[in-house]
Every structure is written in structure tokens, then in C-alpha cells.
Amino acid sequence: MTHHPEKLIKDLNAIARDLRLDALEIIHERGQGHPGGSLSVAEIIAALYFHHLKIDPARPQWPERDRFILSKGHACALLYSALARRGYLSKDELHTWGHLGGRLQGHPDRLKTPGVDMTTGMEGHGVSVGVGLCLAARVKGLGYRVFVLVGDGECQCGVLWEGAMTASKYGLSDLTVIVDYNGVQLDGPVQEILPLDPLAEKWRSFNFATLEINGHDVRQVLDALDMAGEIHDKPTAIVAHTTKGRGVSFMENKAKWHGRAPDDEEYAQAISELKGESRHE
Asked: What are the chain's domains?
């Protein structure tokens, strides 16, 4: 496992903050979107796109690139920000999100947006698509890895576990599933709607090497990704404990912010809190 210098941790935390700021800006500007589940994955996306993934924005279709699937496609505001800051898009294009004829759709679309490896939004299907990409790499002799970010509410979908069974059957060690375990879905707490615990044990029972981390601790995220790369006989699941609406006090752990855009006053307060971030340091 690689030792990660303090400067890298500091830089990735700053990037995660900027991704949150971008996401809230375009959600507010558009008047719709999903702030809660976008804010909860910022450190994970920052660690992947700005350190871990083998990608080249100048060659978005490079055959050997690592693949990333945002299975919880409703969190695309955060993904679009990462793609822009990584060089796949211009920052100005973020403001075209949802515009008729634009490249940035309400959910990620691989046929329109450079850097998007799979169209998503239909909950539960990302794992199975990731399995297919891993099998394709095996057949073609390519060396890429596949990372699938799923929501916890999404883990209530049966099709997700069909994909997990298939990944286990074929020993797809190049597949890493990351669960954004923020505990809140559209209609309320996950544990009240359809409990998932013990979630880590469920993944282990499907023969995944399973890690549990604080999904807002960049060092833990990086260490888990490194450990996944050292496992060669089975797929990996990283259960990342996170906070819905992370960084904005009135959004945290609130189901109402799953899919609601802030008004002008709420937006101003959210941006002020994120720029300070004193509560989380």
C-alpha cells in the first residue's frame, strides 16, 4: 500500500470542496438536481479522478483507460464538475447542464459527454455493466480496472446482487464497487425503508473482499483503493460511510435534500458554509 503524502491529502480535500461548490452552483442555477447524494461523494470522486484512475482527458476513448461508472447517476452534478476540472470539458460548459441539445444531461450519457463511460440512472444496473466491462477486458487482453459507485438505496435493488453474483463467479478482481453509505434515500432513512445492515457482511457473503471506511477521510479512501488493487482473486467492495449533504448544515442527513435545489437564500448559506468548512476540519 502506497504512503500518501500530506500535500496530496490536502490537495484532494481542497478539490473535494471545489467539486461541492461547483455542484451546488449548477444545481441552484438549473433549479433542479440532487444535492444530498452529490455532496456525499465528493472525496471519493476527488480521489478517483485526481489521483487514482488511469485516464487521459486528451484521449477519452483510450482503450486502456480505467472505467468509472456512476451507477447513482442522479449525482451527476458532482461528476460533471470533476470532468470539467480534470479537462474533459470547459468550466463554462457546466452552465449548459440540462439545456436542450447540450452534452450534459440530467443523468450521465456516454454518447454525449466525454469522460462518461456508461449511461446511468436506472438504479442497480451499474454493477452488472461493470461486470461486462471487466469480462470484455479479459477477452480483449486489456489491462484496465473498473470502478462502480453505487448508492445505499440502490443496494435494495435485486439486479445489483445479480451483478455481484456474476462478478464473484468469474473472480473479477479488476472490479471495485464503492457504496456511498450515507443512510438516507429519497423518502427517508434507509434503515426505515428497507434495512441493509449488515451491509458489509452481505458483500462478503457474495465473496467480495470487503473494506469499510469513512468516505470523507481522503487517506482512508486512497488506502482502500490501493488495497483493492492488491487483491487478485475476487472483486472488492468498499463500504464508504458518508453523510448525505456533507458540508452544508441544513442539508446533512435530510431526505428533503435528496432531489431539491436550494433557493437563493439557501444557496448563499450553503456556499458560505462550504467556503468555511470549519465544522469538518
From this structure: 6-280 (3.40.50.970)
